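Now produce a polypeptide, keeping tokens residue-aligned:
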Amino acid sequence: MLLGVVLYLLHVGKSESVLWSIFWLTCLAAVASTLRGQTAETATPIPANPLSLRIAHGTSALIDQTLDLSAHPVIYSHGQASSTEPYYTQRLTSARSIHLPVARKVAQKGGVVGIWANGGSYSSLDRYADALLELAEALGAAHVGVGTDMDGMTRMVVPSYREFFDLAELMAKRGVGSADLDNMLGGNYIRVLKTALAGGQPGGA
């Protein structure tokens, strides 16, 4: 049912923010149902329902617990990877970052970390390409993606999907192979969602 709704919305041209809202609300309902009345010590694993959890904006502790409980890989849809622990008193983009050790755990479980193409963090498409490749070096290209939440945002170095062609060209010039390029520009997200929908185990390297 969920897949049918998503495919319909894609067909009629609805924005990615609508799609992510559907995923997010579905995830919240499933998690709330599973964890109701439980503590961190007594919580049981999130059942292998056909959904993929989106963990952007979560604290390190929340993401860690989600990884422990989820039966599937998870998606950190947009943000930055930080070598230092994010904290709520930092500026918005820094506070919402994912700590690199936590990002590695996401990757180890087969998930994907999306780097947000925010112009406040990256001055150009060229610098954004550098950030994707730096994270791919740390996590593996099978676990890195272009961050979501482009619609309606200002100062984005990837304001629409049209820029994917320019981004692909920049990354290819840096020696990224076609398979890794396809994965980072969307294939990794598709893999995780297919894994969740199939109820199977994570793939990727």
